[in-house]
Amino acid sequence: MKKRRLFRILSIAIFLLIWEIAALLVSKPQIFPMPIDVLIAFKVLLLSTGPAGVEWAGELLGHSLISLTRVVAGFCIASLSGILLGIVMGWWQPIRNLIEPIIEILRPIPPLAWIPLAMLWFGLGFKPAVFLIWLGAFSPILLNTIFGVESTSKNLIETAKTLGAKQRELLLKVVIPSAIPAIITGLSVGFGVGWMCLVAAELTGCNSGLGFMIMYYHWTMEPAKTIVGMLMIGFIGLLIFMILKRIENKLLAWREEI
Amino acid sequence: MEPKIKVAHLSKVFSDTKTGIDTQALLDIDLEVNDSELFCLVGPSGCGKTTFLRIVAGLETPSSGAVYLGGHIVNTPGPDRGLVFQEFALFPWRTVAENVVFGPEISGIPSSQRKQIANKYINLVRLAGKEHKYPKELSGGMKQRVAIARALANNPEVLLMDEPFGSLDAQTRNLMQIELLRIWNETKKTIIFVTHIVDEAIYLADRIAVMSASPGMIKEIFRINIKRPRDSTARSFRSYKRKILNIISAEVGDFST
Q1: Dist CA B19 CA B46 (whole Å)
Q2: With an 8 Å Cβ cutoff, is B215 touching chain A?
């Protein structure tokens, strides 16, 4: 355990060292800042006044909060709609036959291709961002839920029937619990895609949020601040993944180890 | 006395919709199983014994004929018939106790009473102390004990067992046979037990129906007049075994020629 931690620190140190050397070789801080420049930028962004509405939080945390609000809203809507529709489509074949073609047509369109329409329909800011996150997160959640529902063991369904379960109980007490691992996989993948869509949406259709922030400092030619924003995007993504993983482990204590 | 289960002229044809070929799985089966009887079905694999059990359980519908339980016709699954599969089929997300009370939970029995039911049947199958374990933490034999307890917790009229010990090792299998006889003695349930192992059938059964394959028919029914516990090396035991094996091997012989 201790050894692993040591390697982690070592790995990050090597990364910083390579970065430092590369920056020294390039030696143009205005296009390739050194780690120390980024650290200074981090401090500046932490202390400067935040975007409208969250001035108190400072620039970096303010934009992070705005991004998080958007992603949580979009992700919740995507989870709710994806899981519900997935259960319905996985369980009732006629409904699946009815809806699947629409999804099959729309799914290959990358969520980012919806940005123009999102801006046309919802303007700028919160709504188009949430719409894009929903678009990105929805289909992995939906498809994994359908898969989880339809791969419910036939044996378990028959067992439940012989124990007196009817449709309602089959769905609530057999099919849904057995689909939960697949649903959680869908949620993690969906979150990843949603997070990516959020940044893209903020790059183009917002004037706040981390995506906006990194683009803004691109225009002002302060790449160190752009890098701070990028690192924050990565850090928040990692944090949420770890939270999802923890929920998964807690919820799925019953699962066979592979 | 009225039989617990009556099977009348039961036939089952499976139609393959792709090839259009019909398979006669069961042909004209007539059978009566008495209350509290331990009835075994033996036969070569593919003789339709599982299909027969699934029809009694209500998971398949007969092509013709019918199954009656206590005088009423059976055509859907129901809590009056408990089924135990070879593959245990425990709900992996439920603990032992939660698995056992699945049936009572569905029939709306309040949780305080469910706790008593769980205790009663977990004790019956001798799994006290394992109530809060998940199926993945149990051995094969323990899993099958849970499956039996779960089927019994619904207080069914009949217990249907489809090669329940088929995936267990030989020692565990012998132990489970002894356990089943004990449980049967304590609960006085009617049991229909399907197996392809003749020794197992003779060790357990009051009566054995020997089936033939394609189409699945009942060739002969034996009443096993040996006092329990039975010794598989005893002369009387071996004589039943010889008779039953003769029927089965004649069947398999017919089939191969």
Answers
A1: 19
A2: no
E runs forming strands in A111-152:
none
* Buried/exposed code over A191-204 (b: 16+ C-beta within 10 A; e: otherwise): bbbbbbbbbbbbbb
> Average pLDDT, stretch B69-83?
93
Same domain? For A138 and A252 the reply is yes
- The boundaries of the domain holding residue A6 are 1-32
In angstroms, the separation between the Cα of residue A148 and the nearest Cα of chain B is 14
Q: Do A46 and A22 fall into the same domain?
A: no
Tell me how crowded residue B72 is: count the other CB atoms within 10 A of its CB. 9
Is residue A12 domain-shared with residue A121, that is, in the same domain? Answer: no
Quick one: A137 and A223 in the same domain? Answer: yes
**B 115-134 near A (Cβ less than 8 A):** 134
Residue B142: the pLDDT is 96
CATH number at residue A122: 1.10.3720.10
Q: Which two tokens stand for residue B240?
A: 């039943």
Is a pLDDT exceeding 50 seen at residue A156?
Answer: yes
Mean of pLDDT over chain A: 92
Pair (A95, A212) in one structural domain: yes
Angle between helices A93-106 and A126-150 (to 10 degrees): 140
Q: Is pLDDT larger for residue B214 or for residue B253?
A: B214
Same domain? A24 vs A65: no
Tokens 């009572």 correspond to what residue?
B104
> What pTM was estimated for this model as a whole?
0.87
